[in-house]
């Protein structure tokens, strides 16, 4: 997710900067409309684009260092488990709440516009429909509906230039662009770039409508005065195109601006290498790094192939399509078999199904608990313990000094894995020096101790 947001936002910033510097001040409004929408779509899809470039890379060997097992204090184990459980839940809860609020506000605004359409008189005009309302408003457009004051319409107080302006919004379906950005703002409300894109898109819509009016009536000064006269009017609807949006120096200058066709062509052509560079930075570079990592992994695996084949030689690998849990949580009855082969007969694809089991344990390094840790492990409500492979009561630890424990390890027991016999949230294993040395625990095992490895695609729990 972080990678997606980083690449997407980076693309939006770079493309918006290109638009501001190269395109916004040029009279190429139809292209600009397409370009702004393309920027948003491109920024959302580019994180998923992978362009593989194969090249020979000399990768230096990195020794396969296996560190000794690290153990946390019991309190740290609890904090680690809580962090892993709660942090994602808190993050997604906040995201969901804010997105839901914005979504309902979106629906509320749509519903308000719908009510105004249904409850007011209508008049067909060209490619649009006039909605005659009682409010003293400036004409504005949603889809092909143009909202105007009923008295102004009846008394013919609305200039023809205003009708042409709003009909352009309706005919060119500018509302769809705004709705698209609003939906993105619901999903990515934390991205301020979407606010800038929305303003740029709305301003471009006004450039398009202004251009249509001037081409039709050919009276720039009158139209400019008309805009300035209406500039004080306000509309409070989020999704509409309205006449006075950003009546600024930009719009007034754009009406009289002339742009050379050669400059337009040059800037469009210059965009191609810029996009190519952006794709290279966001896609090809990342893939190259992945290739390097894959090469290192492949090299490490090739060194361990012989060891793996020896370790799992003769072991049966069984994969069931489903399983049903019996009374004992660890007793699962398998259904239809998908795979039942020895290690030697497994194909590379079948080995992937058992990838989580295909690891070779290393030898253990002696590690004794501290006196404080040993005292804490005596708490039978927190820990289920085993000494030299035998489950015993926690008080049995009183027979040992911390230095007499050669090695210990433990894990968190999730709630759904706890039993009546062992309801504790942690389980720990302790090994004396005699047991450790006799069983050669410091030496990596050469052969898998069991006869088979069983896995289930789905398990139904009672």
State the low-pLDDT regions, or none.
57-82
Count of discrete alpha- or pi-helical segments spanning 4 or more residues: 13
Strand content: 5-15%
Question: How many discrete structural domains?
Answer: 3
Strand order of the biggest β-sheet: 1-2-4-3-5
Most strands sheet: 5 strands, mixed
Gyration radius (Cα, Å) is 35 Å
Main features:
462 residues, alpha/beta, 5-stranded mixed beta sheet, 4-stranded mixed beta sheet, 13 helices, 15 strands, 50% helix, elongated
Task: Outline the structure in words.
The chain has 462 residues and is an alpha/beta fold. The protein has 13 helices and 15 strands. The chain has three domains: 2-55 and 92-275, no CATH class; 302-359 and 450-462, no CATH class; 371-443, no CATH class. The strands form four sheets. It has a five-stranded mixed beta sheet with strand order 1-2-4-3-5. Helix 1 (2-23) packs antiparallel against helix 2 (29-45). The longest helix has 51 residues, at 261-311. The two termini are 35 Å apart. Mean pLDDT is 83; it is low at 57-82.
What would you say about this model in short?
The protein is of the alpha/beta class and 462 residues long. It folds into three domains: 2-55 and 92-275, no CATH class; 302-359 and 450-462, no CATH class; 371-443, no CATH class. 50% of the residues lie in helices and 15% in strands.
């Amino acid at each position: 997710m972080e990678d997606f947001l980083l690449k997407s936002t980076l693309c939006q910033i770079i493309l918006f900067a290109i638009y501001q510097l190269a395109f916004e001040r040029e009279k190429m409004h139809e292209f600009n409309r397409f370009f702004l929408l393309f920027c948003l779509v491109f920024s959302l899809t580019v994180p998923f684009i992978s362009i593989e470039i194969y090249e020979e890379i000399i990768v230096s060997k990195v020794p396969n260092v296996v560190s000794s097992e690290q153990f946390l204090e019991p309190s740290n184990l609890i904090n680690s488990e809580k962090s892993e459980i709660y942090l994602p839940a808190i993050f997604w809860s906040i995201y969901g709440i804010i997105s839901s609020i914005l979504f309902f506000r979106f629906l509320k605004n749509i519903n308000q516009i719908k009510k105004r359409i249904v409850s007011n008189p209508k008049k067909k005009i060209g490619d649009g429909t006039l909605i005659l309302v009682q409010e003293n408003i400036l004409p504005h457009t949603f889809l092909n509906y143009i909202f105007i004051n009923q008295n102004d319409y009846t008394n013919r107080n609305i200039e023809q230039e205003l009708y042409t302006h709003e009909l352009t919004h309706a005919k060119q379906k500018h509302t769809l662009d705004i709705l698209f950005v609003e939906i993105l703002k619901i999903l990515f409300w934390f991205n301020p770039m979407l606010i800038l894109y929305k303003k740029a898109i709305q301003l471009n819509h006004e450039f398009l409508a202004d251009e249509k009016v001037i081409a039709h009536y050919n009276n720039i000064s009158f139209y400019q005065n008309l805009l300035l006269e209406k500039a004080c009017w306000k509309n409070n609807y989020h999704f509409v195109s309205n006449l006075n949006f950003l009546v600024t120096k930009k719009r007034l200058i754009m009406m009289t601006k002339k742009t050379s066709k050669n400059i337009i062509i040059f800037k469009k052509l210059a965009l191609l290498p810029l996009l190519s560079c952006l794709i290279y930075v966001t896609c090809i570079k990342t893939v190259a790094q992945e290739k390097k990592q894959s090469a290192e992994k492949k090299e490490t695996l090739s060194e361990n192939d012989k060891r793996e084949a020896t370790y799992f030689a003769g072991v049966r690998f069984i994969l069931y399509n489903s399983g049903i849990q019996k009374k004992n949580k660890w007793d699962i009855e398998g259904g239809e078999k998908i795979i039942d082969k020895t290690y030697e007969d497994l194909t590379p694809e079948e080995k992937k199904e058992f990838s989580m089991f295909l690891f070779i344990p290393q030898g253990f390094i002696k590690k004794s608990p501290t006196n404080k840790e040993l005292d804490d492990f005596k708490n039978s409500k927190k820990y289920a313990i085993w000494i030299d492979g035998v489950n015993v009561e926690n008080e049995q630890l009183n027979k040992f000094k911390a230095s007499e424990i050669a090695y210990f390890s433990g894990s968190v027991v999730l709630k759904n894995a706890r039993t009546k016999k062992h309801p504790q949230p942690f389980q720990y294993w302790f090994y004396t020096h005699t047991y450790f040395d006799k069983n050669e625990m410091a030496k990596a095992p050469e052969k898998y101790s069991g006869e088979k490895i069983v896995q289930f695609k789905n398990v139904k729990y009672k």
